[in-house]
Amino acid sequence: MSNKKMDSLIQQMENYLECWKQFNHCINLARAKKFNAEDESQFLEVKSVLIQELELILAAMDVPYPTKEDVHTVVGNAPSLRFLSEMSDGALRNLENQWHKIYIGWHSILGQLKVRERAEADKSAF
After folding, report:
1. Model-level pTM?
2. Which entry of 58, 85, 115, 125 is 20 to 30 Å from 39 by CA?
3. Could you tell me the pLDDT band of residue 30, with boundaries at 50, 70 and 90?
C-alpha cells in the first residue's frame, strides 16, 4: 500500500474512532435522560456515518475483528436515544460492553496500520 493510501486510511480510521466516541457519548446522554430532538438527530447521523464508513474501511482492508455483524448488532440495538433511555440498566451496560469491545478492536486495527506505516517508512529510508 502506498504511503499516501496508508496515510489516508489512518486518517479515516481516526475519524471513524471519533464517531465511536460520539456513539458512546449518546449512550451516556440516554442513560442520564438528558437529550433533546437535536441530540436524537445527531445520534441518527452518527449511526449513519458508522455504518457507511464501515463499508469503506472493509473495502480498503481485511478486518478480522470487529466483524461487520458485530458493528451492525451494536448500532441496530440502539434505534434511538429514547429507546436507550428506556432500557434496563443491565441491558444498557451490555450495550456499553459490546461498544467497548468494538472500540478497542478498532484501536487495535489502527495500531496495526501505524506499525505498517512505520515499517514502510523505514524501508524507504534505506
Report:
1. 0.92
2. 58
3. very high
